[in-house]
Amino acid sequence: MFYNNLIVFNEKIDIKETLFSGQYFLWTILDTDSSYYASIIGGVVIIIRQLSDIYVEVITSDCFINGRVINDFIYKYFSVDVDIKESLNDYFEYRYVGVWSILHRYFSLRVLRQEPYETLITFMCAQGIGMHLIRKQVSMISQTYGEKKSITLSGKEIILHTFPTPERLSSVDPLVLSTCTNNNRIRATNIVLAAQAVVNGEIDLKALANPAIPLTELRNTLCQNRGIGYKIADCIALFGLGRFDAFPIDTHVKQYLATWFNSTTALRPLTPARYLLLDAEARTFLNPELAGYAGHILFHCWRKEVKKLRSF
């Protein structure tokens, strides 16, 4: 049985740009109809189609996701409670006129509140590789170790897979898993170790989601695990733990910090010390409490407007 819901937002939200902006790798565009996007969240099949700037059709296999009615879940998931303009400091629009002229067109992009464990593992797949390859790795892991779900939409069969549980991944041979991680055995080993740490409580994601934990402490705690450095830790915090103050820094972020915000630090190699310096610099022109939220919009804008990249 499927439940159809019409969701109305109070402002424009671009569903496709949001889902495929490099923050989540478990949504797929349906082969049967490219206007539909599908995933499985909390064991529930969810299919979304944008009808207009503010109207969205949501089809689900249950009337609750993670204990929330669909409307409430969608509003929280797409962080509609966040005022994007508040993520920039008061003078941003006037101080960075050129950036603002293109950036404000991306205010329909939202940062998702994602499942912590899935975010942990998927971003451990994301070290030093492009979006297409990340999505391929995550898809292979799901298809190989997740649970297959077959559904029918408009008379056509759709095959989806759940993301494997930590218990399932914790028991996988890293050598076998490496066939899903571009033959990177170190990455596969680190993923298995992380899954084991979640199972035995060494990585307590529920405790780490406590907003009272200082960001520095949260980052350092995550970095105690193999395969997690500052950037991956900040991605996990931002996208998986609802820490919109976390500001992940990769090559694209370094580039826009140097070009758009005249950072000389960003012109130098990204050592751990410089990472923290760039983090501090970004908070001078972004709202520190929402620095990562703004950072993701800047990241997506830079990739599309300046780098002219289309693969997400």
Could you characterize what this model shows?
The strands form three sheets. A five-stranded antiparallel β-sheet has the order 1-5-4-3-2, with helices on one face. The chain has a two-stranded antiparallel sheet with strand order 6-7. It has 312 residues and is of the alpha+beta class. The chain has a domain at 1-81: 2-Layer Sandwich (TATA-Binding Protein). The mean pLDDT is 95. Helix 5 runs antiparallel to helix 12. It is built from 15 helices and nine strands. It has helices at 15-19, 70-77, 92-95, 97-103, 116-124, 131-145, 166-170, 174-177, 185-200, 205-208, 215-222, 230-240, 251-261, 272-282, 291-306, and strands at 3-8, 28-29, 36-41, 44-50, 55-60, 64-65, 68-69, 148-153, 156-161.
Short account of what is shown:
The chain is an alpha+beta fold and 312 residues long. It has helices at 15-19, 70-77, 92-95, 97-103, 116-124, 131-145, 166-170, 174-177, 185-200, 205-208, 215-222, 230-240, 251-261, 272-282, 291-306, and strands at residues 3-8, 28-29, 36-41, 44-50, 55-60, 64-65, 68-69, 148-153, 156-161.
Mean pLDDT: 95
The dominant shape is: globular
Under CATH, the topology of the domain at 1-81 can be stated as TATA-Binding Protein
Strand composition percent:
5-15%
Number of strands: 9
Task: Specify the CATH architecture of the domain at 1-81.
Answer: 2-Layer Sandwich
CATH class of the domain at 1-81: Alpha Beta
Helical content stands at: 40-55%
Largest sheet: 5 strands, antiparallel
Provide a count of the helices.
15
Q: Please tell me how large the radius of gyration is.
A: 19 Å
- Major sheet: order of its strands? 1-5-4-3-2
Distance from N terminus to C terminus (CA atoms, Å) equals 32 Å
Structural class by SSE content: alpha+beta
